[in-house]
Design brief:
CATH superfamily of the largest domain: Ribokinase
CATH topology of the largest domain: UDP-N-acetylmuramoyl-L-alanine:D-glutamate ligase
InterPro entries: Aldolase_TIM (IPR013785), Hyethyz_kinase (IPR000417), Ribokinase-like (IPR029056), ThiamineP_synth_sf (IPR036206), ThiamineP_synth_TenI (IPR022998), TMP_synthase (IPR034291)
Cofactor: Mg(2+)
Bound molecules: the ligand Cc1ncc(COP(=O)(O)OP(=O)(O)O)c(N)n1, the ligand Cc1nc(C(=O)O)sc1CCOP(=O)(O)O, magnesium ion
Radius of gyration: 25 Å
Number of helices: 19
Number of strands: 17
Structural class: alpha/beta
CATH class of the largest domain: Alpha Beta
Pfam families: HK, TMP-TENI
Strand content: 5-15%
Keywords: ATP-binding, Kinase, Magnesium, Metal-binding, Nucleotide-binding, Thiamine biosynthesis, Transferase
Helix content: 40-55%
Strand order of the largest sheet: 10-9-11-12-13-14-15-16-17
Largest sheet: 9 strands, mixed
Organism: Saccharomyces eubayanus
Amino acid sequence: MVFAKEDVNYSLYLVTDSTMLPPGTTLYSQVEAGLKNGVTLVQIREKDTETGSFIEEALDVQKICKKYNVPLIINDRIDVAMAIDADGVHVGQQDMPIPMVRKLLGPSKIIGWSVGKPSEVETLAKWGPDMVDYIGVGTLFPTLTKKNPKKSPMGPQGAIAVLDALEEYKASWCRTVGIGGLHPDNIQRVISQCVATNGKRSLDGISLVSDIMAAPDACAATVRLREMIDRTKYQFVDCELNESFPTAVSIKSVISQVSSNRPLVQHVTNKVHQNFGANVTLALGSSPIMSEIQSEVSELARIPNASLLLNTGSVAPIEMLKAAINAYNEVNRPITFDPVGYSATETRLCLNNTLLTYGQFACIKGNSSEILFLAKLNNDKMKGVDAGSGKNDDALLARATQIVAFKYKTIAVCTGEHDFIADGTFGGECKLSSGTAGVTAEGLPCVMIENGSIPIMGDITASGCSLGSTIASFVGGLDPTGNLFDAVVGAVLLYKTAGKLASTRCQGSGSFHVQLIDALYQLFHENKPEKWSASLKKFN
Ligand SMILES: Cc1ncc(COP(=O)(O)OP(=O)(O)O)c(N)n1
Ligand SMILES: Cc1nc(C(=O)O)sc1CCOP(=O)(O)O
Ligand SMILES: [Mg+2]
């Protein structure tokens, strides 16, 4: 049987590996369990098997695939693919060159190629539509399955660069599957985040080995994977993802929710911020806990209305930070990420980029330099941890905020003379192939908050970090029907209004600290957003 290439379903692509079979299972039982429960494409990849045995295994797997009308791809071995008339092959950068593979297999067979960077996309585009039919985009996350990997994990941002290259070089025919370390805890995030910048395509499928091949119950594993892939809504926080612009009424509702839910706000933050952040959190009717204890983070994440503030100003152990992200993502509790001094040093840049790839954030907050750098709109080295050469160009800053929101499918906050907040969550919608249906960063809801300058804000420690505490309190205190965008916008509006109020009441930077906490407390408990001095303007 010859499969029409346009009919190939890449959505759940199983790659075999007999070296990881659990007791009581076989290559065939795992493949059949996968096919019975939603695997749509199979590749036999048995790196340690001699040719004769490999051909026997391939023929047996082929029989099973035919039963389910699913194509069979052969890893590396073009000769074996020809010998058994398989439906195609998958080759990597170190295997037989694609033009030779195509010459041997003919035009109707499926050819897959491993791609790890945009330059390889340029090459396939030059070959044209008759050569590569799909690409394996990876290695997305760390994996033990592929021995001596030549590529370091690229994360969703690396996959976006490959998708962008497919769009740039107009390789519209070429399909894509993500591969490398894919499991139920990251599949939805991958589908949601791996979208071309022009919004026109996302990955066409998820390809994996160990989640099925090493599963004692491969049926259950496949059912779970299938469900994750087919779910078109990625609810990464247990509150509503946004459909509307914030108003005084909706922000009033947020404060009522925070007030009654009294969220626990776990701060993983720098030492300078800890005391003041705790007092800000208390002023907002929330409960702070300053904990960097890896062994308790899962317990804390499960406390009702828990919220995590990750402020990388002081570099806590990376394993603790990863454990915290995992723990809160696992229970859909919000994480507010403040990549303080994002690129001030190589250490911080590496740490922050690792964390950005590692999990999903409800909100990413930064000063203008951090946001411009995250958006790749300003590569200047930052000056220390304060806003460096960030530009006071509102349009540029709004655009950068939208770009960060789009790249990470999050609520992005850019603080400065004016604050910008953009919603890149798309209401949690995430689909294979279609991306964001062409909606780009520029189309994202974005607001600007103005309240005049408050110079004294820069004369105290942790004023920026404590906006993070405020945001974490607000997003943590939402009801499940609450609105994430409302919460973040409300937090910034409250914080800016309190800053202005405190600046009129203080005698200097010392009393400003105290007055800021008083103002936050007073405004929060009054809950009259319609009277706040900070104004909100739609930026698009
Ligand atoms: C779907 C898919 N993507 C990538 C690979 C890796 O292929 P390759 O780079 O040739 O490495 P080996 O699999 O040969 O070790 C793949 N096999 N399938
Ligand atoms: C076969 C393969 N190719 C990769 C690439 O990056 O090209 S990663 C990989 C192994 C993926 O196994 P698992 O799903 O168990 O992580
Ligand atoms: Mg290979």
